[in-house]
Amino acid sequence: MIKVLVAGLIGTVAGVVVMIVVIVLGGSTTEGSTSVGVGALPLSTASLSTGTSTPTSTPTPPPASSGGSTGGSTSGAAGDPANGKTIFTGSAGCGGCHALAAAGTTGAVGPALDALSGSAQKAGQPLDAFIKTSIVDPSAFVAEGYPDGVMPTNFGSTLSASDIDDLVAFISASQK
């Protein structure tokens, strides 16, 4: 029995050492990586809307981040729209629930995101701030006809500040 335990321990230590050597020799880093938990599926409907927004709680401003997007125009976002499209259609999974023509997505679990200016006005926020708030605090403004609590609430911590800025820039630039 002891021989089995010792062999298992030696195998585990050897495996960890081999993984570390492979990572170091491969030059792999986590810089620029994101980790997105998908939470319970289906993903949310609760925030970014094309219809009437109904505040369900006191609006919470998005967390401060360097280079954050605070502009109100559809072209004033500080992020990279091209990277935002990649995040929208890929790692963040936004397109699985939201339709957005510029992304080529047709998700119907959440509201379509092609015309958000009216919702931002009803929420009393500039467009870019409304989009950012809707990503990091999806319960702040819930689109009429969609339930609260479906969109994951962890994007503010699972996406980097620059990834959020890129999403905001992409969605903002995609407005009709």
Number of domains: 1
Cα(first) to Cα(last) distance is 70 Å
* Poorly predicted residue ranges: 32-76
Overall mean pLDDT: 74
Largest sheet, spatial ordering of strands: 1-4
Q: What is the H level of CATH, i.e. the homologous superfamily?
A: Cytochrome c-like domain
- Quantity of strands, as a count: 4
Shape: elongated
At the third CATH level, what is the topology name? Cytochrome Bc1 Complex, Chain D, domain 2
Labels describing this entry:
two-stranded antiparallel ribbon; Cytochrome Bc1 Complex, Chain D, domain 2; 176 residues; mainly alpha
Q: TL;DR of this structure?
A:
With 176 residues, this protein is mainly alpha-helical. It has 6 helices and 4 strands; from the N terminus they run αβαββααβαα.
Describe the structure.
A hairpin with a 4-residue loop joins strand 2 and strand 3. Mean pLDDT is 74; it is low at 32-76. Helix content is 39%, strand content 5%. It has helices at 2-26, 81-89, 117-123, 127-136, 155-158, 161-173, and strands at residues 53-54, 99-100, 105-106, 142-143. It has a single domain (44-173), classed as Cytochrome Bc1 Complex, Chain D, domain 2. It has 176 residues and is mostly helical. The chain has a two-stranded antiparallel ribbon. A two-stranded antiparallel sheet has the order 2-3.
